Amino acid sequence: MTREKPKNLWQSRWGFILAATGSAVGLGNIWKFPYITGEYGGGAFVLMYLGCILAIGIPVMMAEIALGRRGRGSPLDAIARVVRENNGNPLWKAVGGMAMLCGFLILCFYVVVAGWAFAYTWKMVDGSLAATSVDALAGVFEAHNTSPWLLGSWSIVVALVTLWIVGKGVQAGVERSVRWMMPGLAVMLLILVGYALTSGGFSQGFEFLFTFDASKVTGEAFLAALGHAFFTLSLASGAILTYGSYLPDGQSIARTTFVVAIADTCVALLAGLAIFPVIFANGMSPGAGPGLIFMSLPLAFQQMPFGTVFGVLFFAMVSVAALTSAISMIEATVAYLNEKHGVSRVKASIASGVVLIAISMLAMLSFNVGAEWKLFGMNFFDILDYVTSRWMMPLGGILMVILVGYCLRSDIMRDELKLPTAGYALWLFMVRYVSPVLILVVFLNALGWLGF
Ligand code: PFF
Ligand code: NA
Questions:
Q1: Which spans are transmembrane here (predicted)?
Q2: Phi then psi for 251, rounded to 5 degrees?
Q3: Among residues 2, 116, 160, 380, which is most buried (max CB within 10 A)?
């Protein structure tokens, strides 16, 4: 059977690495990681998260890139093709379909948070963040959120920019935008960390992030760490698999995976080191929830020399990071409509954009008129987050490792990964035993069946 020819390929050697790092590094690192680390109590959570990245994240990312490149298509088609090459059960393609849906659902709430970052970049400039207490800043955040028009408009702006870039195509849209956004992001981050290092007040934040407290290791925290490991590396959401389908044959999957995972982890830890010192220095609680960076950091920026410049830089950085991730979440759906149904990328972007905006408006309403529309005690925004991170990603991840670890002929993955014997054996051991067992244990425990 002849292999499928790629329809699109990254143009430059760095295309995949930049795009995949762009996908990985996002609000997950700068917004979600700090606030859930705060909620789950610091160092213990960080350690569980790092463990999940190593034991599950890296092997799964390699598997996803390999599946994408082998199948040369959007998640559903790529998996269908690889499975067909193996005479396997065609139902496996449902895993690809679920991943695509997961990426799409994440984007529906992600645009709201990205909208906060866009809005705050602007607010930094126009002086609306000139309040002098954390309470006053919390008030600014609340006022922003109580207006569905304001919140909705910013979310729509994010959605439109994302769709516009994706509509232009893999090379002219995605690759060209990450080629300047990612270096820009790196520069902004380095400037901010440089500032944090010289401004003192580091030790308390450092301690919070890296002091291990065994009493904080709970099943619930572990499930959160697992979900976040998937989220932060963009796994089981179609993004990495689709980007992998554009990867030229000669490039090493293992090496690119390590670069992306290390970059993502460094950004999360650096963001933590930039944010927690500020929070403690101002007597805030690290468990302030989703508004954490928006209610605490502007205050610190005001007290710094050139604070406005740093503030604009910070929120612009968050905006760019969010945008390169948002692009990757919708790429799978657009690629699917384009490849499978022959719809042009522009039309595919418009069609998915209409649905995206409709659902994201419901998510946005969770912060104002829909705050009380609750299911299982969660509003719609929280439900989207919960269902994707706690259920769809771990479930997609475990199915994917079962597929590559047990159901595919072993020469297929070996052929794609091209690892030395020992490296391949290690990878296979991880996807066969370590990742699925860990995911399963975490799941069963969360369901209350193991009780630790
Ligand atoms: N990895 C992104 C972040 O950390 O912000 C979030 C994400 C991107 C999740 C793309 C899923 C995805 F498909
Ligand atoms: Na991330």
A1: 12-31, 43-67, 94-119, 149-166, 178-202, 222-246, 258-284, 304-337, 349-371, 391-408, 429-452
A2: -80, 145
A3: 116
Phi then psi for residue 282, to 5 deg, are -100, 15
Token pair of 153 as six digits = 């408009």
Q: What is the pLDDT of residues 387-428, one digit of tens each?
A: 999 899 999 999 999 999 999 987 899 999 999 999 999 999
Domain ranges (residues) in the chain: 15-446
Chain CA centroid to CA 163, Å: 18
More confident residue, 110 or 184: 110
Flag whether the pTM goes above 0.80: yes
Nearest ligand to the C-alpha of residue 23? 1
- Smallest CA-to-CA distance from 417 within 7, 94, 426 is with 426
What's the gap in Å between 24 CA and the centre of ligand 1?
Answer: 5
**Around Cβ 412, how many Cβ atoms within 10 Å?**
16
**pLDDT higher than 60, residue 321:** yes
Asked whether the beta carbons of 384 and 106 are under 8 A apart, the reply is yes
- Helix and strand numbers, DSSP H then E, in the chain: 22, 0
Measured from CB, residues less than 6 Å from any atom of ligand 1 are: 23-24, 26-29, 103, 106, 231-232, 234, 237, 239, 325, 328-329
**Whether the Cβ atoms of residue 411 and residue 248 lie closer than 8 Å to each other:** no
- How many other β-carbons are positioned within 10 Å of the β-carbon of residue 133? 10
Question: What is the ipTM score, two decimals?
Answer: 0.99
Measure the CA–CA gap between 254 and 59, rounded to whole angstroms: 9
Predicted local distance difference test score (pLDDT) of residue 451: 67
What tokens were used for 452?
Answer: 């630790």
